[in-house]
Design a protein that fits this description.
Blueprint: E1 4-6, H1 17-21, E2 27-31, H2 35-48, H3 63-88, H4 95-103, H5 109-119, H6 125-133, E3 140-145, E4 153-154, E5 157-158, H7 165-174, E6 181-185, H8 190-196, E7 213-218, H9 221-232, E8 238-244, H10 261-289, E9 302-306, H11 312-321, E10 326-328, H12 344-352, E11 358-361, E12 370-373, H13 377-387, H14 412-423, H15 429-440, H16 445-456, H17 485-492, H18 507-524, H19 532-554, H20 566-577
Parallel strand pairs: 1-2, 1-10, 2-3, 3-6, 6-7, 7-8, 8-9, 9-10
Antiparallel strand pairs: 4-5, 11-12
Length: 581
């Protein structure tokens, strides 16, 4: 229905977003990380919609997968019921029925047919029923960070690998009634990928339909090719490659070695046919070897993108020039409380945030750069613990305890031990302070990123506490007011402009600036003398950025001049050429 989607944001921010947007035809993504939070949300929605509820406790075998399956089935039922209510109100053109079509892009044939019928109520009944038949609800997609796959114990006994966090989450989705996709993010997990083979819904049925689809979140074409082949050799089709900017995005950042999103999208555009054909050959060979039904033509493959998109011109350019199927709009939706769960205090911080308030931090226990909002209440709480002489979190959920030591680096027990080790070393006070700060900067984000939904819905939060982590992308700095779903969708489709009075560079330039600053910081903070190997890395990084700039100059006749500052691009080209390595 739409050519945008709402990506996963944090843990709790979009945990129930499908309830709010899927009946209106909009796709969104739920995080499957926190089964404790998921169980609380299932209880909340069962009570709200008078659905029978029986608690799934952690004393039950396979409780994590069971909780996820039950929650997804509950959300699926609610979405379908609400969608059917919208269709049932068609005869008298109910408010939600009209809203469904009002949100659609103006070029949508379905919207145009609706307007025709609305203007001429004497249209044939066949036209009206055809309109209803072509309405669909949005997908309830789910997300798994593949590396968050810690081992689990039941009644004191370590369980086999299929009970690991990511494996159990996958099983929870696979056993659900959903007909949707699972987004696999944060890199490869071959053991998890192999586990997917055990579930029939990931294979085409006798009509060629795939009930459970795979979406791979990738940062470049090479990664897509490698992972896509891994799945194709198993007889599993990757239905979508979701390309995300390495730095101009929310949540964890996975910077490339200077490869900018424009050239990356160009490679996907030029290689899509080759990608489909090479995957299809491996796919059919695997299906034949397994005596499974083999589609006579390749299943549909989508290419989508997300990260830093902020205007209709950018959205439209990405769709048309790179021939993309959908664009992800994430961080701006944090200012749409109608869609995303953001508590009042965090909402105020987000709406007032400037570029200086949105920064790349070392807060994440995963050891990956993490986009952070300055003065978020989880960081305030963290500092209070440090000031009281009790740094670190009580670690009530332990989802980040994935290292060889089985401890989360944000936990109090881990930080106490590391601080003792540092204090026993022969370091001066400055060195000791820096080493300790490197330990205590870690924050309990696996709790903090889920708390907001509890506060918004007044759900018990004794385990989690009141502090909230939030991880918007840098692009949020250009959005400065709380808005409704209609306003945001109208902005995406160019029917209004929420940034009319904002001086905002094009998304390609914003990403370039982020990469330039990142490279500059990496060089300045490299303490040891730069050897040949490191020098080669920095030079390759710079050359990739320079090649990206030349690529953007080659698009001069394709990009709207009013939306793209080539002088600013030239400035950063000069800065890179003059950067001392």
């Amino acid at each position: 229905m739409h050519n945008f989607h709402i990506p996963v944001m944090g843990i709790g921010f979009t945990i129930d977003t499908p309830v709010k947007v899927a009946p209106l035809g909009i796709n969104s993504v739920i995080s499957l990380l926190d089964d404790m939070l998921i169980e609380k949300m299932r209880k909340f929605y069962c009570e709200k919609f008078e659905i029978p509820y029986m608690e799934i406790t952690n004393k039950m075998e396979d409780f994590r997968a069971q909780r996820i399956t039950s929650y997804l089935n509950t959300i699926d039922k609610i979405v379908k019921d609400k969608f059917n209510e919208i269709k049932a109100s068609a005869n008298d053109f109910g408010k939600d029925f009209e809203r469904y079509f009002d949100l659609l892009p103006d070029f949508s044939p379905l919207k145009q047919k609706f307007i025709e019928i609305q203007n001429d109520l004497h249209k044939k009944k066949e036209d009206f029923y055809a309109l209803l038949d072509n309405m669909t609800h949005g997908d309830i997609d789910v997300n798994i960070m593949t590396k968050l796959d810690k081992s689990n114990y039941f009644e004191g006994v370590k369980q086999s690998v299929e009970f690991n966090d990511a494996h159990a989450a996958l099983r929870g989705f696979a056993n659900s009634e959903l007909n949707s996709s699972i987004v696999l993010s944060a890199g490869m997990n071959p053991r998890l990928y192999a586990y997917i083979e055990k579930f029939e819904d990931f294979y085409p049925d006798n009509n060629g339909n795939i009930k459970k689809k795979i979406i791979l979140k990738v940062s470049d074409y090479r990664s897509a090719l490698i992972q896509g082949k891994m799945f194709a050799k198993k007889g599993i089709w990757v239905s979508e490659y979701r390309i995300e900017s390495g730095l101009n995005c929310g949540g964890h950042a996975f910077p490339t070695q200077g490869h900018l999103i424009g050239p990356i999208l160009e490679e996907f555009k030029q290689s899509k046919s080759e990608l489909i054909q090479s995957m299809y050959e491996l796919f059919t060979k695997a299906l034949e070897s397994q005596n499974r039904f083999c589609p006579q033509t390749p299943p549909k493959l989508k290419i989508t993108a997300q990260g830093g998109v902020g205007t209709h011109l950018e959205h439209d350019f990405l769709i048309k020039y790179y021939e993309l199927d959908s664009i992800g709009w994430g961080s701006p939706f944090l200012l749409v409380p109608e869609v995303v769960n953001v508590d009042e205090n965090t909402l105020k911080l987000l709406s007032n945030a400037t570029e200086k308030d949105l920064y790349l931090s070392n807060t994440s226990p995963l050891g990956v750069p993490f986009n952070t909002l300055r003065n978020n209440t989880k960081d305030v709480e963290k500092q209070e613990w440090i000031d009281s002489g009790k740094p670190g979190s009580a670690c009530p959920k332990k989802y980040g305890a994935i290292g060889s030591e089985g401890m989360c680096t944000a936990s109090r027990s881990y930080q106490r031990r590391k601080i003792k080790e540092i204090e026993s070393l022969d370091l001066n006070e400055t060195e000791k302070k820096a080493a300790i700060e490197k330990i205590t900067v870690k924050s309990c984000i696996c709790v903090g990123l889920g708390t907001s939904v509890l506060l918004v819905n007044e759900i018990e939060n004794k385990v989690e506490g009141p502090a909230v982590s939030v991880c918007p992308g840098p692009n949020l700095a250009f959005f400065d007011k709380i808005i409704g779903l209609k306003e945001m969708v109208d902005h995406i489709y160019g029917r209004t402009n929420l940034l009319r009075h904002v001086n905002r560079p094009n998304m390609f330039i914003n990403e370039l600036v982020l990469y330039y600053n990142y490279l500059k910081s990496e060089i300045e903070n490299f303490h040891s003398p730069i050897g040949e190997k490191q020098k080669d890395y920095f030079n390759t990084f710079r050359n990739n950025l320079l090649n990206g700039i030349e690529y953007y100059f080659s698009l001069a006749n394709e990009i709207e001049k009013d939306s793209f500052n080539f002088d600013l691009m030239q400035k950063y080209k000069n800065n890179l050429l003059n950067l001392a390595i």
